Amino acid sequence: MISSVAQQGAADTARRGSAEIALSVEQASYAYSASARQAPTFTLEATSFHARQREIVAILGPNASGKSTLLRLVAGTLAPLSGRVQLDGFEISRLDTRTRAQRVAMVQQESPLIFPVRAWEYVLQGRHPYGRTLRFETDEDCGIAMNALAQVGAEHLRDRCMDKISGGEKQRVILARALAQQPLLLLLDEPTLHLDIGAQVDLLERLRHLAEENRYMVAVVTHELNLAAEFADRVVLLHRGKCLRVGSAAEVYQQELLEQVFEAPLAVEQTASGRPRVVVRGKNTQ
Amino acid sequence: MLRWLRSIAIGSAGLAAVVGALLYATPLAAQSSAAPLETTDETGRHVAIPQPVRRIVSLAPSITETLYALGAQDRLVGVTDYSDYPPEAKQKPNIGGSINPNLEQLVALKPDLVVATRALNRRETVDALARLGFAVYATDERTVEGVLVSTERLADVIGAHERGAELVAGLRERLAELKRALEGRAPRRVLFVVWHDPLISIGRETFLADALRWAGAKSVINSSQDWPRLSLEEVVRLQPEYLVFADSHAEQGALNFEALRERPGWRNLDAVRGRRIAIISDAVNRPCPRLVDAIEQLARQLHPEAFPQKSENGKQECASCAR
Amino acid sequence: MRPVTLRRVLWTCSALAAVLLVVVVLALKLGAVPISVTDLALSLGRVAIGRSDQLPSEYSVIVFGLRWPRIVLGILVGAALSVAGTGFQALLRNPLADPYVLGVSSGAALGAIISLIASPQFPLVTPLAAFLGAALTIAAVYLLGQREGQLDSGTLLLAGIISASFLSAVIMFLMTTLAGRDLRGMAFWLMGDLSTPLPAGLRWIFLAGLLGAVAAIYTTAADLNLLIAGEREALHLGVDVTRVKLVVYISASVLTGLAVSVSGAIGYVGLLVPHVMRLLFGSDHRLLIPTAALGGAIAVVLADTLARTIVAPTELPVGAMTAMAGAPFFIYLLRRNLP
Question: Taking CB atoms and an 8 Å cutoff, what residues of chain A touch C243?
């Protein structure tokens, strides 16, 4: 176990700098109540998409479309029933937890905290995958943590308690913790959920900037159609467990398709930047 | 400087650990004297009692009474709570309750012998004292005869053999006389009321049950528990001929009884309606020489026709008490 | 930014150890029989240089035969209960989690009672039986606390509470129906009793078990910091959640079983001491676990000293003391730290 981790670590360092690493999801499916006797009801049917470094993939769909399942498959906490979910050639769900945490970082709505935690403590937790069993954080760890806070523009929040800062600020600190993990792949689960529009835009812009600078692969689960269109390089559209289309926003945002998926009267327009925009079709327009 | 302090801290911690280990393992100084008396107490424990026995601690009120009856009160240096008979016993140094005596105070009294009884004291107390090197003699009185034998043996152990033999012989004679007086008479069916609410009586293996038999009575309750809790309905079904209460003052007993008569359920008892109650001294609760007084008292109340020439009220005679 | 470092852990522990030393000296001095500090120092000195036969006999018996074993037991039991409490609170993400809520003490008590009934002539068996009772309860509660094959905090707490009630009922049943003669001491033991020292054979087993369990929990200290934030988050940060939960649960249960089997039910220690240490030193478990151990030792020795001196010669049960002192103190702390 230890030697393979070391090997993986070495391979890691070699790869990061040079060739392209990819996230590849091929025909991955999952079912929650699979039993040997009867045919399983699929929560997610065979889905495929790829992501390269510096790319942001948006996983879109209404509620209960299988978005969370797909994200957990990519995070490696679920193993696909069929198909493959690989990062840089390694099956993510088969990695041991520590190695996985060094490659994949998750940003999600966090459980309520029972004991007060300061922002710097919180971000420092991101260094956990790199420590031995009984370790104390080194100066290097602290440096990485502070750097992560700086990258999300939250240095000034360093000594504040997590339960005393605003939603947007908290989201940034959570992102900083993910950055402190120095991952290859960043996953975000509905990151804009409780944020106002200003904070939403701020977050996504930072994301794009970070992906570019640190060469992350980013996958974001969201149902914000327009934000996804604006920031994502690729969109995966899910509907009731099926992957309907994968492609750029322009390719995926077709009126009939969207209306079918979201069951609402919608129309697709074009913005100045060339990206599509989805609007609600009023009663009077056709 | 910091490294210095840290070394000191670790050093003193280590030193404390070493001292601690030493202390934990230190055998305690044994009490040395002339050849001790080797014997087995009534719970089967082997005891080595230093001779002569000059300082005694009693861990139960009944033991205290017995020691006074044996004339050993000058050697008694410590008693537990409720050692109230004879009244002088209250002046003796008190070391706490029988169940939880304060071992430190006991140790400070430096006894040669500690006397306990299985009926009242905890095994842990006896073991703890034995571990500390004290001689602990435990009695275990199950019957009236057992009380007498126990008294004799205790007398031997503390070196009061003649007094003990004399005392017990007298008690045995009284019991024999009682037996003669009650010969041929059917025993009365009684309920001995330890407490009325909740209703608690006595089990068949207690010395109390045996005492009842000597008094020409028979407990209607046949339980293997020592202090069974009963339901009133059960008692009504059994309909004892007499109710027996123990109380130090007969008058107070009568007062309580009036209150009791009014209560639901009790009214249904023949014994209550017919006012067939016997009140005896609470010496009956203690396995000591005074028990015989209580037995005689009860016998007189239950079988008055067997003792025509004696007085009838419940005043106790204390032939065996030291004055 | 001040993360916990090894140096800080050692420093804080040394400070607490010094406090413990003072408390121990106090406990050796105080009691129903007054012993002056000079006499005490002289006695300790004589023993240290190997001249124990020169001690005045009653002092040596009182200090070394009666008080010292209690103090040692108090230190071990206090440390065990506090670390167990810390473990359970992290495991269940609930600051009110406590060894007793999980029914472990009731299981241990039941084991002890059954052994007393079955074989009263072998008092050595009692602690072993109590430990077995605790272990079986742990296993049962662990199994009952599963939901969809996973340890679920809420279900676990519930299973623990129900087990505690059930086992207490069984205890009551046994104590009322069976001959009360030798079980009289049970009532005392159930309330917490440090006066019975460990039988010689068990001493080393106890110590080894204690140190082993504390060490096992300490290896998960860093993981526990993350586990508190949430299981999902911990999983994504590289914590082997299942393994950590198992280690902590078993170790904490071993600690509780050992403590209860020798000293009965001393409550509030596993609940309050970790909390106080958290308020004083923060929630980082790498610091919290050792400070909780020392804090627990201090608390129990103090409580025991109070219990045997406040209404001397009567000795109060230690459990009553910890409850009486612990509850109001806890309320005070809560109020002081509300925003």
Answer: none
